[in-house]
Amino acid sequence: MISIRSARTGDAKTIAALSATLGYPTDISAMTNRLQKIVREPSQFAIVAEDSLQTPCGWLTAHAFDTLASGFRVQITGLVVADTHRRQGVGRRLVAAAEQWAQTIGAKIIVVFSNVERVESHAFYPALGYTNTKTEAVYRKSIA
Ligand SMILES: CC(C)(COP(=O)(O)OP(=O)(O)OC[C@H]1O[C@@H](n2cnc3c(N)ncnc32)[C@H](O)[C@@H]1OP(=O)(O)O)[C@@H](O)C(=O)NCCC(=O)NCCS
Predict the structure, then answer these.
(1) Counting atoms of ligand 1 from 1, which one is nearest the CA of 87?
(2) Any idea where the domains of the chain sit in the sequence?
C-alpha cells in the first residue's frame, strides 16, 4: 500500500538516489540543505510516496508564485517515481496531492515543464488531464 506524506530532511538520501536516476546526481549534504529550505518555505510543497515498508518510492515538489503575465500559479518543479514502482498509480497520487495543495492556497492553474526526452511523462500528464500548451527553449548562463 502506498501512502503520501510531507517530505522531511531525513529523506535526503532516498530523494538524492531517486534524483540520480533522472540524471541529477546530488550529494546527500547538498540535498539536505535544499530540503531544509524547501520544507520551511510556505510557498513550496514537497511530498514523498512511501511503500508498505515505509521506503520512499517517489517524490514531488511544487512551487507557488505570482507572475505579472499570468497571475498566481503553482508549478510542479520535480517528480520522480522509482523504476520499481511505476505504473501503479504513485505518480497520479503525488500529482493529485499537489493539485489539492494548489487549490487550498487559491491557485487556479497548475503547470509543469517536462523535458521532451522524458517520454513516459508525455503520456503521463495528458492521462491526468494536462494539456501541452507550448514548446520552449531553455536558456542557461553560469553566473558563479
Ligand atoms: C512520469 C512518472 C512520474 C509516472 O509515474 P507513475 O507512477 O509510473 O505513473 P502512474 O502509474 O500514476 O500513471 C498514471 C497514468 O499515466 C499514464 N502513464 C504513466 N506512465 C506511462 C508510460 N510509461 N507509458 C504510457 N502511459 C503512461 C497511464 O495512463 C497511467 O495510467 P494507467 O497505468 O492506469 O494506464 C514516472 O514514469 C517517472 O518518474 N518518470 C521519470 C521522471 C519523469 O519523467 N518525471 C516527470 C518530469 S516533470
Answers:
(1) 11
(2) 3-127
Domain 3-127: top CATH class: alpha beta
Which residue matches cell numbers 526526452? 117
Query: What 3-state DSSP class applies to 36?
Result: helix
Q: pLDDT of 118-140, one tens digit each?
A: 999 999 999 999 999 999 999 99
Question: How far does the centroid of ligand 1 lie from the alpha carbon of residue 91, in Å?
Answer: 6
Closest by alpha carbon to 61, among 94, 108, 17? Answer: 94
pTM: 0.97
The ligand 1 atom at the shortest distance from the C-alpha of residue 112 is: 48
Q: Which three cell numbers stand for residue 76?
A: 510542479
Q: How far is the CA of 25 from the centre of ligand 1 (A)?
A: 22
